[in-house]
Write a structure and sequence with these properties.
two-stranded antiparallel sheet, elongated
Length: 407
């Protein structure tokens, strides 16, 4: 232990005046408050973004493969699963999952005579229904029949169920815009809710075999294929690779472009949290400067005596630097402890609730990202640590005689 560390430890642990103790607690409390707010904001924003992205991707995958067409009918120009990129997806290593679908505009009516216009999304047993487990709020998912027979069950949104005045197990009537028009009587099997009106108001789910029979398509024809990839951070690279593998008449669409208004909104939230983070960090830094200046002024007589006894400026600066490091370290530790504890509690018990119609979810979400959490802590530490050097520079201007007289 060198001289500066010894004096710093003595100042920190022994003979604190009540004023010094009070000031030090303010310094630690300021850092704790700043770190807690920053980390909780990060956890909540990350959870909010993840929840919104999961809702969008669960409906559309990360990419969508379809045929180029200038017509507005879903029935025109289907995609053949045995030709082009669709036939290669199993061999692409970054593709986690893919699922085909058929779309058809329909009118849906219940026994109450209420009619709604929606899009029927025909899917098969390959559909990743695990993504919807936490979105099914009533009933269950579709039970599929054989490849040649279709299930007579459908899953609709909570909003549509309310508009149709229907209940689980009720018969509903679907009218398909075919030539000639076709209608089918199906059974309501389940109800989902994502909170995103773009999906809840526009889509229902049913068996893809039903639409194949109505459209007179064979088992290889679909409206499109949704592709899920392993790593969302590589979406741009994956997109370029898929485009290079696609045929001239295959259209590869990124979901974040298809729903660009949602993803632009999330980017705007990132910008807001960056401004908020910067403001909190500035407040914590100015707080640290003020506290150290007060502590140096209170110890100015000690500084003069140490200089008179032969201590150089660097040794005296290190005394206050070590104390500053203790304040920063303790503040970061307590800030992390409090914020992580509160985040874990909210993640497990979901105490704080939200209005789902406004926020797309009914509770405050928590998103964990240990890598970004570590970077935030390091950034806070180094910024405040660099700021600590500013008030310490005043020690160079303290004269021995004036400081010893100071009381």
């Amino acid at each position: 232990m060198n001289f500066s560390q010894f004096i710093s430890r003595r100042i920190w642990s022994n003979n604190f005046s009540s004023f010094s103790l009070f000031i030090s607690r303010i310094a630690i409390g300021g850092i704790v408050l700043g770190v807690t707010i920053i980390l909780l904001s990060f956890f909540i924003l990350n959870g909010f973004k993840n929840e919104i992205k999961d809702n969008v991707y669960s409906f559309s995958g990360h990419f969508n493969i379809s045929k180029y067409t200038g017509k507005f009918s879903y029935k025109e120009n289907p995609l053949d699963l045995n030709i082009g990129l669709s036939s290669q997806l199993e061999k692409i290593d970054y593709v986690k999952h893919f699922q085909s679908y058929i779309l058809s505009p329909i009118l849906i009516k219940s026994n109450s005579e209420d009619i709604e216009g929606v899009i029927f999304k025909g899917i098969d047993k390959n559909f990743n229904s695990n993504l919807f487990k936490n979105k099914i709020i009533e009933g269950n998912w579709i039970d599929y029949e054989s490849d040649n027979e279709y299930s007579n069950e459908i899953v609709i949104s909570k909003n549509l169920k309310k508009n149709l005045n229907a209940e689980i197990g009720d018969d509903v009537f679907l009218y398909f815009a075919n030539n000639p028009p076709v209608y089918r009587k199906l059974k309501l099997k389940g109800v989902f809710e994502t909170g995103m009106q773009e999906f809840d108001n526009n889509f229902i789910f049913g068996d893809i075999v039903l639409l194949r029979k109505i459209f007179n398509w064979d088992n290889t024809l679909v409206s499109g294929v949704e592709v899920f990839v392993e790593n969302q951070d590589d979406l741009e690279l994956n997109y370029n690779d898929l485009k290079s593998k696609a045929t001239f008449d295959e259209f590869i669409e990124k979901t974040d472009i298809k729903y660009i208004q949602v993803f632009d909104w999330l980017k705007l939230l990132d910008r807001n949290i960056l401004i908020f983070f910067t403001l909190i960090l500035l407040v914590a830094s100015f707080n640290m400067i003020s506290i150290l200046l007060i502590l140096i002024m209170e110890r100015i007589r000690m500084i003069g005596i140490l200089k008179a006894l032969g201590s150089n400026n660097n040794q005296i600066k290190n005394i206050f630097l070590y104390n500053g490091l203790r304040v920063i370290t303790l503040g970061l530790f307590l800030g992390n402890l409090i914020s992580i504890s509160l985040a874990v509690f909210q993640d497990k018990f979901k105490i704080l609730k939200l209005d789902k119609t406004s926020y797309y979810m009914d509770y405050v979400p928590i998103g964990w990202d240990l890598y970004t959490l570590s970077k935030l802590n390091l950034l806070v530490f180094f910024v405040i640590f660099l700021v600590v050097f500013l008030p310490i520079l005043i020690i160079n201007r303290i004269k021995v005689l004036d400081s010893i007289k100071f009381s």
